Amino acid sequence: MPKPLVAITAHSALVRDDDDDLATRHEVVSTPYVRAVTRAGGRAVILPVVDPDDRDDLHALLDRFDAVVITGGVDVDPRSYGAPTDARCGPTQPERDAVDLAVARAVVERNQPTLAICRGIQVLNVALGGTLVQHIEEHMVMASYNTRVHDVTVDASSRLAGILDADEYWTNSLHHQSVADLGAGVRVTARAHDDTVEAVEVDH
Question: Is the pTM of this model over 0.70?
Answer without folding.
Answer: yes
